[in-house]
Amino acid sequence: MREDKGGLPQYELILNPTDGSTTSEGATAHAIYLAKETGAELLVLHVVETTII
Hints:
Blueprint: E1 2-5, E2 8-10, E3 13-18, H1 22-38, E4 41-46
Parallel strand pairs: 3-4
Antiparallel strand pairs: 1-2
């Protein structure tokens, strides 16, 4: 994390794990906002639950 600028921490990389749920969609929107505001790289990790039979 870089120095504070304009009230936001200055992240270099934001990892956003998502599973497609409503909650994760809100988190993704926030991660996009933070990445735009701070110039950080945004890495999205899509998580899928599988069942082994």
